[in-house]
Write a structure and sequence with these properties.
With 459 residues, this protein is α+β, with helices and mostly antiparallel strands. The chain has a single domain, classed as Uncharacterised protein PF07063, DUF1338 (2,3-Dihydroxybiphenyl 1,2-Dioxygenase, domain 1, Roll), CATH 3.10.180. Helices cover 47% and strands 14% of the residues. The strands form 4 sheets. It has a 5-stranded mixed sheet with strand order 2-3-4-1-5. Strands 6-9 form a two-stranded antiparallel sheet. It has a two-stranded antiparallel ribbon with strand order 7-8. The protein is globular. Its cofactor is Fe(2+). InterPro entries: HGLS, YdcJ_bac-like. It is an enzyme of class 1 (oxidoreductase).
Length: 459
């Protein structure tokens, strides 16, 4: 049982998310402009779309909208990943899902650290997409050995952060002052450093293998490479970014525009070219680009049946395009996506009846005022107005979309074809625990909400 003087992990996560956002706003000024655009867009949607406003108020999501962020970080060793898992655990974040990005030419595999219960998500839905570099994919054996030696020498956590992680584990939580210190110390792992740990030539060799390899290996810390607010209308944000001095990527990743959004749609601006001092240079006369701004719009979480349909339609559109989506073929790609996804029902009721998406069930005022209805079926209660449903928000990521964002900021020339295949076992061994099946979490939330409704109606 938690000590009464311990700060809730959910509140520590909420504070850390805010501190991260403040730090990133200072480091990347365009992120501030992006935040202002997202806030303006969300206000516009809430003022002009009563249905979305009602839905957000009904689910409680309105309270978390301005807090919502996801970050991304890339680490180089199993030890770094395992310690990150312990750090995130202090904030109530667990590894959910396994993502293999090598089929898209990105030499990493990943998980998303996040809260797993709907009550915890309401306090803070902060997530961190965390990738582990697959050193075995560096073909040059000498360069691979060099990269491993550089990574083995660094420590990406402050001594105080490591001490506070151990303290939280041993005593079962952190007091108020300890929680404040933890946020301050943990933040240092994600901070940008202008000084590299390699020479300019070593950086060039790492970058020649893959620009992401240089990003992971050449610095003393992994640095947060983007921080993502949630918008209610990503198409509007995409259209207005140029007017705010922000150049968006050509294609919005994920499903096409829909009346009832599903899964996750993402866009971003190009990675910044930032000054870097290599170890054989006196001043920061080199440069590195990796950090960028990203925006996302989240929709309904899909069931295995819904994901299978989504994957089939996405693959059909991409196969017909027969190219990597880019500025030259963006209009054609959008047309193909809209064409193929016309097969996917665009009403929540249609998705619910075909069991394509997960939903949360709520008792209505009529249901609370009725006599015991325990013997009624779920469909009877819905049609009778005793229950209502809202789609469960997709809290996770899409490997094709993640790869598309990475590639758009690394450059198309960074695409590489790897012969290796998914290695979930190796990733989980490095992590020190299995990753959690995200679809199981959504199914459990849906089941729990139905049980709570029947309990309330039979009271």
């Amino acid at each position: 049982m938690s000590h009464p003087n311990f700060v809730s992990p959910d509140l520590i996560r909420q504070r850390f998310s805010k501190a991260m956002s403040d730090m990133y706003r200072e480091e990347v000024p365009l992120y501030g402009a992006l935040m202002e655009l997202v806030e303006q867009t969300n206000r516009h949607v809430l003022d002009n779309d009563p249905q979305i406003a009602r839905q957000l108020h009904g689910t409680g999501e309105i309270e978390r909208l301005d807090l919502e962020r996801h970050g991304a970080i890339r680490v180089g060793t199993a030890a770094e990943l395992a310690t990150l898992a312990r750090l995130f655990a202090v904030m109530g974040m667990q590894p959910v899902g396994y993502y293999d990005l090598t089929p898209a030419g990105v030499p990493v595999h990943s998980t998303a650290f996040r809260a797993v219960h709907e009550a915890a998500l309401q306090v803070s839905p902060f997530r961190v997409f965390t990738s582990l570099l697959r050193l075995e994919l560096i073909e040059d054996l000498e360069l691979r050995a060099f990269a491993r030696s550089v990574l083995d020498k660094r420590s990406i956590f402050t001594p105080a952060a490591l001490m506070l992680i151990e303290l939280a584990e041993s005593q079962g939580g952190l007091t108020e002052q300890q929680a404040r210190d933890f946020v301050e110390q943990a933040l240092e792992t994600f901070r940008w450093h202008h000084s590299a740990t390699v020479t300019a030539e070593q950086y060039r060799q790492l970058s020649a293998q893959h620009r992401l390899i240089a990003d992971v290996v050449a610095f003393k810390g992994p640095h947060i490479n983007h921080l993502t607010p949630r918008t209610l209308d990503i198409d509007r944000v995409q259209a207005q970014m140029p007017a705010h001095g922000i150049t968006p990527k050509a294609v919005i990743e994920g499903p096409p525009h829909r009346q009832c959004p599903i899964l996750l749609r993402q866009t971003s601006f190009k990675a910044l070219d930032e000054p870097v001092a290599f170890t054989d240079q006196a001043d920061a006369c080199g440069s590195h680009s990796a950090r960028f701004g990203e925006i996302e719009q989240r929709g309904a979480a899909l069931t295995p049946k819904g994901r299978a349909l989504y994957d089939r339609l996405l693959n059909a559109a991409r196969d017909e395009l027969d190219d990597f989506p880019n500025e030259a073929n963006a209009d054609r790609y959008n047309e193909l996506m809209a064409q193929h996804f016309s097969e996917f029902p665009d009403t929540y009721e249609g998705m619910r009846r075909q069991e394509l998406a997960y939903f949360r069930y709520f008792v209505t005022a009529k249901g609370l005022g009725a006599d015991a209805l325990k013997s009624s079926t779920l469909e009877d209660l819905l049609s009778g107005g005793y229950l209502r449903v809202e789609p469960l928000v997709y809290e996770d990521f899409l490997p094709v979309s993640a790869a598309g964002i990475f590639q758009s900021n690394l450059g198309d020339a960074a695409q590489t074809h790897y012969g290796e295949h998914s290695n979930r076992q190796a990733f989980e061994e490095a992590l020190g625990r299995p990753t959690i099946d995200e679809l199981g979490l959504y199914a459990e939330t849906q089941r729990r909400s139905i049980e709570q409704c029947f309990a309330a109606l039979s009271a």
